Amino acid sequence: MRPVACAASERTANKGEVVTLPEEEAPTRSSGRRAARRVWTVEAVRELGTVTDLVTAASVLCIGRSKAYELARTGQFSVEVLHVGRRYLVPVSALLKVTGFAPTRD
C-alpha cells in the first residue's frame, strides 16, 4: 500500500517531494515521545466515502486541527471545503486529486 501523505518525521516540500526531517526536528509530545500520526493509504482515503470532515482531511494532508480550521475560515485550505451549517466538509475526490491520485470510476 502506497502512503498518501507524510509520516510524523516527514514534511512535504513545495514541489510535492517528501523531505525527511532529522530526528531532533521531528514532532514530539510534551513528554518527549514522538507524536504518532496515521499514515494514510490511497485505499483508506477512498474508503472515507464521498465527503469527510475537515479534521480527517487535515490528517490526510498532515495539517493540524487548529491550522485546518484557520485555513478553512480564510478560504486558504488546500482543497475545496464545503461549509454546511456549522460543519466543514471536504470532498474525498478533491483530497485524492491534490495528493496526486485521481478517483477511480467503476
Oligomer: single chain
- Taking strands numbered 1, 2, ... along the chain, how are they ordered across the largest sheet? 3-5-4
What's the alpha carbon Rg, rounded to whole Å?
14 Å
Low-confidence stretches: 7-28
Coarse structural class: alpha+beta
In whole angstroms, the N-to-C terminal distance is 20 Å
Number of strands: 5
Shape: globular
Percent strand equals: 15-25%
Total of DSSP H or I helical runs spanning 4+ residues: 4
Order of helices and strands: EEHEHHEEH
Main beta-sheet strand count, sense and barrel state: 3 strands, antiparallel
Helix content: 25-40%
Task: Please tell me the overall pLDDT.
Answer: 76
Domain module tally: 1
Protein name: Helix-turn-helix domain-containing protein
Organism: Planosporangium mesophilum
Show the helix and strand layout.
Elements: E1 10-12, E2 18-20, H1 42-46, E3 51-53, H2 54-60, H3 65-74, E4 82-84, E5 87-91, H4 92-98
How does this structure look, described?
The chain is α+β, with helices and mostly antiparallel strands and 106 residues long. It is built from four helices and five strands. The strands form two sheets. A three-stranded antiparallel beta sheet has the order 3-5-4. Helix 2 crosses helix 3 (65-74). The radius of gyration is 14 Å and the shape is globular. The chain starts with 9 loop residues before the first strand and ends in an 8-residue tail after the last helix.
